[in-house]
Write a structure and sequence with these properties.
Elements: H1 2-21, H2 37-42, E1 45-46, H3 55-58, H4 60-64, H5 72-78, E2 83-90, E3 93-108, E4 114-126, E5 129-134
Length: 143
């Protein structure tokens, strides 16, 4: 189910980017598929030594707004793409988790093979506000 959601989000983002640049991208569900020369021109290429994009790099302005205790509404204003993941009891108190993700189709340098890169961070909220952010399912770190 998560893979399907990631594929849908990735396809939507690729379509949005392609529409803005005038490119047409043929999306597939398989990574490592060879692209035509025209398709490869529309997929961003990573230079040697360049790091993969991260949630932090793609949402740097939003991360700069994070602060302990911020409300869910303030968080959602900073991260409109955030998705509620689940609620869990931690030390007898409800904690809500939200996820912010990126899912991008990329290729290396002059390669005509595309791959999908994904990254996500979870944000944990007690009734008092934001208490922690990091990897998925890090309930033990919620203080």
């Amino acid at each position: 189910m998560q893979a399907m959601k990631n594929a849908v989000v990735g396809t939507a983002l690729a379509g949005l980017l392609a529409g803005m640049s005038g490119c047409i991208i043929v999306s597939t569900h398989r990574d490592g598929e060879r692209l035509s020369r025209e398709e490869a021109e529309c997929v961003p290429a990573l230079a040697p030594g360049e790091t993969l994009p991260s949630v932090e790099s793609r949402h740097a302005e939003s991360f700069a707004k994070l602060r302990p205790g911020m409300s869910v509404d303030e968080f959602k204003a900073a991260f409109p793409s955030a998705v509620f993941v689940k609620q869990q009891q931690v030390d007898g108190e409800p904690v809500d988790a939200y996820r912010v993700s990126i899912n991008e189709r990329l290729r290396y340098r002059s390669s005509r093979y595309a791959f999908t890169h994904s990254d996500s961070k979870w944000f944990y909220f007690r009734p008092s506000g934001l208490v922690y952010w990091g990897a998925s399912n890090q309930w033990k770190n919620v203080k």
